[in-house]
Design a protein that fits this description.
By secondary structure, the protein is α/β, with parallel strands linked by helices. The protein has 16 helices and 17 strands. The mean pLDDT is 93. The structure holds adenosine-5'-triphosphate and magnesium ion. The site of adenosine-5'-triphosphate (ATP) has 14 residues, from helix 3.
């Protein structure tokens, strides 16, 4: 009862406040005496401005996390609690803006007009409020769209060592949403300001800010802000989801978020558990992941897709945070340092990557063409290992499998920040499936990928239009694709 009352931001004609006195200040955690009726998660205001949130209790004191970075607090100061959970502004005005975890603008574009106030730690929609995924989220990265397809409403973990191209794949997905009516949110947590600056430059250069919100929780922000940032990002997305829109959120990255929460917990004097993380670290991440989904039409029919990123050490996916996140998402994309160093970029090891629900929403044309890819690639990997021991006497069939495997590897290599449209991807995969790429060198395949699209755009543009509207390759269009391929191979 109290919870639901608190969740609705009521506006009484008078304000009831409880008063407390700060007894201890330790970094971002203060202890307060007084506040007899406050509960966990409740908002606390400081005398000189700024906000805090109740995070725990000792027998006599209340433990409060300070959210703002620029408040000075000292022992003996008064604090006030209102019967309210943390609510922050949301609205259309946030699109194109850079905000901190408290939704305050960090760019020079002036104040943001809020349309509503939403709870940062919202209750998630129940199972009956959701519907199964039904639409694909086009990432523009061929290997993902073909073998690890993502559906709108899905949570897909990007997992890999440092510098393996995780952020690049997430940002390319944002770049690919241009003109697709998907609102993107990039939430940066615990990273250096310079990493965020690079992402911002790229988003601006590619004109992606017009449909993107950036939530800044970089390492120089207060611990409270870094902890709050992913929940704020989810909250900003929820507003649009309730309006019936599709939202795509990147959390870069949750390893740093877990570190921050571990620090906060140690300051709260909670007993450290496995890998010194507090016992509720699973809860705080699953609480976040639950907010993704596809709402039923009565509730607006919007969706929220999550790309949480997690960094691991030396390819070890069994760490506490990474294995937790694997278990609470709908699949993972695994980035491999060895592939990255070999020049296979994006360095996605699709033997270890999986998407558990995305293929339900895949375009039929893509589904038909990509069905055998994983098997063919794994057979190729096996053959590669065998041929390292025995170099002569490969059967004709094995030779064919080797060539197909090499072609698959080549078509999946993709330049950064150059997302492909689904139609382009289907045409490339069609060429692969009929075997015309099997005997080409890697540079010839690269050239093919660029030129064939030009030919199709020039002479067969209606094919592209039909493919997008029907999502299938009709017999007539297959004929025309053969014709276009003929044209290309005659001219080289
Ligand atoms: P971090 O651990 O720092 O977060 P990350 O895994 O997010 O790293 P990125 O920052 O995305 O990795 O990429 C690392 C480097 O690899 C960057 O310099 C980027 O330009 C390069 N890179 C990533 N993907 C590609 C690609 N497909 N082609 C060429 N270069 C790439
Ligand atoms: Mg990164």
């Amino acid at each position: 009862m109290l919870n639901s009352q608190l969740n609705q931001k009521s506006q009484p004609s008078f304000e009831v406040k409880e008063k407390g006195i700060i007894t201890t200040v330790r970094e971002c955690i203060i202890k307060v005496k007084g506040l007899p009726s406050c509960i966990n998660g409740q908002l606390i205001e400081f005398k000189g401005g700024g906000q805090g949130m109740v995070l725990g209790f000792t027998e006599e004191e209340v433990q409060v996390l300070v959210l703002n970075s620029k408040v000075s607090l000292s022992t003996g100061d008064e604090v006030y609690s209102k019967a309210e959970f943390l609510h922050l502004p949301v609205g259309e005005g946030f699109i194109g803006r850079i905000v901190n975890a408290l939704c305050e603008p960090l760019d020079d574009l002036g104040p943001i007009q809020p349309q509503a106030f939403y709870p940062v730690f919202a209750e998630v929609p129940g199972v009956m409020d959701r519907i199964p995924v039904k639409e694909t989220l086009e990432t523009g990265t061929l290997v993902i769209d073909a073998v690890i397809p993502i559906a709108k409403g899905q949570r897909q973990l990007l997992i890999g060592d440092r510098l393996t191209g995780k952020t690049t794949v997430a940002i390319d997905t944002i770049l690919n949403q241009k003109g697709k009516e998907v609102i993107c949110i990039y939430c940066c947590i615990g990273k250096p300001q310079s990493s965020l600056a690079k992402v911002l430059d790229l988003l601006k250069e590619k004109e992606a800010m017009s449909y993107t919100i950036v939530v800044n929780g970089v390492a120089s922000c207060s611990m409270g802000e870094q902890y709050l940032a992913p929940y704020t990002a989810a909250m900003l997305g929820e507003y649009f989801m309730h309006q019936g829109k599709d939202v795509f959120v990147v959390f870069d990255d949750l390893t740093k978020h877990a570190w921050v929460y571990r620090q906060i917990s140690l300051l709260l004097e909670r007993v450290p558990g496995r890998e010194a993380y507090p016992g509720d670290i699973f809860y705080i991440h699953s609480q976040l992941m639950e907010r993704a989904g596809y709402l039923k039409p009565e509730l607006g029919g919007g969706s929220m897709t999550f790309f949480p990123i997690v960094e691991i050490l030396q390819g070890d996916v069994t760490g506490y945070i990474s294995s937790n996140l694997i278990s609470m998402t709908d699949g993972q994309i695994y980035f491999n340092t060895a592939l990255f160093n070999k020049g296979i970029r994006p360095a996605i090891d699709f033997g270890l990557s999986v998407s558990r629900i995305g293929n339900k929403a895949q375009w039929p044309a893509m589904k038909a063409l990509s069905g055998k890819l994983r098997l063919e690639y794994l057979q190729y990997q096996e053959l590669l290992q065998m041929t390292q021991l025995r170099t002569t006497g490969l059967s004709k069939e094995a030779e064919q499998q080797m060539k197909r495997g090499q072609a698959i590897t080549q078509i999946f290599i993709q330049d950064k920040n150059r997302p492909l449209s689904m139609e382009e991807e289907i045409i490339i995969l069609f060429a692969l499936s009929i075997g015309v790429l099997d005997n080409l060198s890697s540079s010839a395949i690269k050239e093919f990928k660029e030129k064939i699209i030009e030919i199709i755009k020039k002479d067969y543009s209606d094919l592209l239009v039909e493919l997008r509207s029907t999502q299938v390759l009709s017999d007539a269009n297959i004929e025309r694709l053969y014709e276009a391929l003929d044209k290309y191979f005659q001219n080289i």
